[in-house]
Write a structure and sequence with these properties.
- The chain has a single domain, classed as 3-Layer(aba) Sandwich (Rossmann fold).
- The protein is 37% helix and 12% strand.
- The protein is built from 13 helices and eight strands.
- The chain has helices at residues 36-40, 58-69, 74-77, 94-99, 133-144, 156-164, 173-181, 191-196, 198-208, 215-224, 227-232, 234-239, 268-275; strands spanning 9-11, 20-23, 26-28, 48-52, 86-87, 105-108, 125-130, 186-190.
- Helix 9 crosses helix 10.
- One of its GO terms (molecular function) is sulfotransferase activity.
Amino acid sequence: MNIEIENIDQVEVKGTKYGMKIRDGICLPNGVINLSYSKCFSLRDDDILISSFPKSGTTWTNELVWLIIHNLDYENSQKNVDKKFIWLDPGIPTKIIDDANSPRLFKNHLPLQFLPSDIKSEKIKKIYVLRNPKDMLVSTFHFYKKLVKDEFTGEFKDLVDLFEEGKTWYGPWWSHVDSFVDLPNTFLVIYEDLIKKPNETIKSLGEFLGKNLSDAEIEFLIESTSFKKMKDSENTLKNDPKHSSIFRSDLVFFRKGEIGDWKNYFDEKMSKRIENVN
């Protein structure tokens, strides 16, 4: 796949080894190659777009959505993992997107301004994944530390500083969230709800996707996308040769999957700062 390299400015960012790319004041991973691709393709009425801030439960939601759309075909869900969704962030040439069969499933972390304007159509289904930003930041910190081109060398407090300043990837977090949850025909997946009330949350997600899931099907989905199942798939992901330039070998992609781990990292002052961002 040949991707035309777009000229995107590079900036130094406190706590990062190689800095970040920046466009329109938004900090981006160094793996973003061409933003024009994500903006200029045409959406179809049966497209489904999953958006989120990184480390918010995106992979979990992706698996649920794929299985629901494909009638709980778990066996095939474990094959061609990279081809199940069109990953918009790095830059996917428009021809590849246009040639993809319907229904197309998209995943991305990009701010709304870098996506096609027709994403605002009421016909197109959007799913936004939201997680407590404190737990999200803890997960982000451990993830950043194990990246090759985007290694984070700072302390946790440095990441909190960046978050408050809107300088983490795809930030500011608050404007990212606000822009997506206000879109028409958008289903909000809350990470904590998937843990606390999975049956109710998955049933509602299925209804949004046009599927009336039985209790047995919901239980199957819960088991098929459990943290243990996701954790078991981690080695397959990391051992894929094309990921060696992205992730270090000691990366833990699925670390804990818990609620409230932030209490082990935040002091009271840092916690208040996160609560007051807007």
